[in-house]
Amino acid sequence: MLVRFNKPFGVLSQFTDKGTQDSPRATLSDFGLPPRVYAAGRLDRDSEGLLLLTDDGREQARIAHPKFKAPKTYLVQVEGTPSPDAIAALRKGVTLKDGPTRPAKARMVTEPPWLWPRTPPIRVRKSVPDTWLELTITEGRNRQVRRMTAHVGHPTLRLIRWSIGDWSLAGLDPGQWREA
User: Fold this and answer.
1) Whole-number pLDDT of residue 38
2) In the predicted model, what is the mean pLDDT of residues 50-73?
3) Which of the residues 17, 22, 30, 44 is marked catalytic?
4) Which of 39, 75, 89, 180 can pair with 2 through a Cys bridge, CB separation 3.0 to 4.6 Å?
């Protein structure tokens, strides 16, 4: 079984929270997902969008393991307006503290018409514009997209994973899931 889930902002990509009892955080167990499925990969608590879950260990490895290079496409709202040189740097690959990234597909896009409001909303500075990027990577280092956009001078304000390989968020509102 393979499940597509639209993970809302603030939800952990796991079924239990080993945090403090005083302030429990939302987890996958809050969404009525089928039993015995596990996340194939991860999506940070402060990121939104597509999370694939499966009950098949081989399929989980095929989706999540970097050696299979499944492309992951993100819609990224960044601070400022990236220059052509900043976009070119993302396309070439940037060197982060843990080494160079693979080249990415990167382009500026308009805000998606299907976009849902985020709770809480992003911080907005009246004197600094924001821009949407579509970024496709084939690796999945910890907080990689955020670190890449920061490296080129444009911190990420909002991050939504749209697709992994052939699977996408199409037709899923935040918190909804469907068998793929």
Assistant:
1) 92
2) 87
3) 44
4) 180
| Catalytic residue check, 22 | no
> Tens of pLDDT along 84-131?
999 999 999 999 999 999 999 999 999 999 999 998 999 888 888 999
SS (H, E, C) the chain: CEEEEEECCCCCCCCCCCCCCCCCCCCHHHHCCCCCCEECCCCCCCCEEEEEEECCHHHHHHHHCHHHCCCEEEEEEEECCCCHHHHHHHHHCCEECCEECCCCEEEEECCCCCCCCCCCCCCCCCCCCEEEEEEEECCCCCCHHHHHHHHCCCCEEEEEEEEECCEECCCCCCCCEEEC
Which domain CATH number covers 47? Answer: 3.30.70.580
How high is the mean pLDDT of the chain? 93
Number of structural domains the chain divides into: 2
Q: Say whether pTM exceeds 0.85.
A: yes
